[in-house]
Amino acid sequence: MIGRRTLIAGAALAPLAAPMLARHGWAQSTYPNKQVRVVVPFAPAGTTDLLGRIAAAHLQEVWGQTFVVDNKSGAGGNVGAEIVAKAPADGYTLLLGTVGTAVTNQFLYKSMPYDSVKSFAPVALFGEVANVLAVHPDMPVKTAKEYVEYCKKQGPNKVSFGSPAVGGTGHLAMEYFQSLAGFKVEHVVYRGSSLVLKDLLANHIPSTMDNLPPYLPHIQSGALRALGVSSGKRWFSLPDVPTIAEQGYPGFDAAPWWYVAAPAGTPPEIVKKLSDELVKASKSPDVIKKIRDAGAAELGGSSEDLAKHMQSEYVKWKRVVEAAKLEPQ
């Protein structure tokens, strides 16, 4: 009797389940069937923009549908992220986001126009970049450890470092480093990395912690000295420069990263289709070359990997912000 009842129940539910399964299968097989908008929450020509265009171009080539990059900058990425958070959850509006839009902005802004986790469906990790601890050659240090000892000897806030923003990835990386190594330096804030670089080259400031790409040619020429990179492993373009972690600060990893997300509620089969293709892209020699030419490195990861990464980064950066006593603005 139990078997017969189960069969009857199954037969009764089959007409209801079939259309649902058909709709899900149809959504996956036909997606995308119109133009897809990829919102980049920063201005054109920066690394975030370049990675957004690489991801969009790859998906367009694979699926033969137009993927248009739309730059919507402002509020550390919050303006563009809000647009995606409030877009229809159909897979036709995507975000090429940063560690800021995913994690750190919520600690730095009093009013957030979206929830960093609940407003989005995580799709895939896509890339990362190293911060570099760099100094003017006149500074008498050659390693990260020597830098720490020098700063301790000079006294709290007697040595300065420049970065492009309060709460930016370079600033937070240095705060993280200070909390691990037990020293204190003065933060000099600039309106962009180009101004930091200019003053560092002129020796108006002795050091910086900032995204590596603009400093790379000057490090290679000897105009600046790299003491360490913030990534978990040595950086492909500076293989002879050790990580900060391997210089006596195990566990230190402060590499900014990028990801793709969709509005919360996007059908899981569409999220999976996007995720699978972006993970494939991160292993493609052609895509890897384009990402590295932009100064970043490939960082593949599924939607599940991205969700786990966001959680671990939340724990880390919340602790750093609290230790630095950074007040939301």
List keywords for this structure.
signal; six-stranded mixed β-sheet; D-Maltodextrin-Binding Protein, domain 2; alpha/beta; Bug_dom1; three-stranded antiparallel β-sheet; Tripartite tricarboxylate transporter substrate binding protein; single chain; 11 helices; BUG; 329 residues; disordered N terminus
Q: How would you describe this protein?
A:
By secondary structure, the protein is an alpha/beta fold. The chain folds into two domains: 34-128 and 256-324, 3-Layer(aba) Sandwich (D-Maltodextrin-Binding Protein, domain 2), CATH 3.40.190.150; 131-247, D-Maltodextrin-Binding Protein, domain 2, CATH 3.40.190.10. The protein has eleven helices and eleven strands. It has helices at 2-30, 47-63, 78-85, 99-108, 144-154, 169-181, 193-201, 216-221, 268-281, 285-293, 303-324; strands at 36-40, 67-71, 93-98, 120-128, 131-135, 160-163, 186-189, 207-211, 225-229, 257-263, 297-301. The longest helix is centred in the N-terminal third of the chain and has 29 residues, at 2-30.
Summarize it.
Belongs to the UPF0065 (bug) family. The chain is an alpha/beta fold.
Poorly predicted ranges:
1-14
The percent range for strand residues is: 15-25%
Which outline best applies? globular
The neighbouring-strand order within the major sheet is 2-1-3-10-4-11
Fraction of helical residues: 40-55%
* CATH-defined superfamily of the largest domain: Bordetella uptake gene, domain 1
How does the helix and strand content classify structurally? Answer: alpha/beta
The mean pLDDT is: 93
Number of helical runs? Answer: 11
Element pattern in H and E: HEHEHEHEEHEHEHEHEEHHEH
CATH A-level architecture of the largest domain: 3-Layer(aba) Sandwich
In the residues, how many domains can be counted?
2
Terminal-residue CA separation: 67 Å
CATH first level of the largest domain? Alpha Beta
What is the fold-level CATH name, i.e. the topology of the largest domain? D-Maltodextrin-Binding Protein, domain 2
**Largest sheet report:** 6 strands, mixed
Record field, number of beta strands = 11
- Rg, nearest Å: 23 Å
Family: Belongs to the UPF0065 (bug) family.
Keywords: Signal
InterPro entries: BUG, Bug_dom1
Signal peptide: 1-22
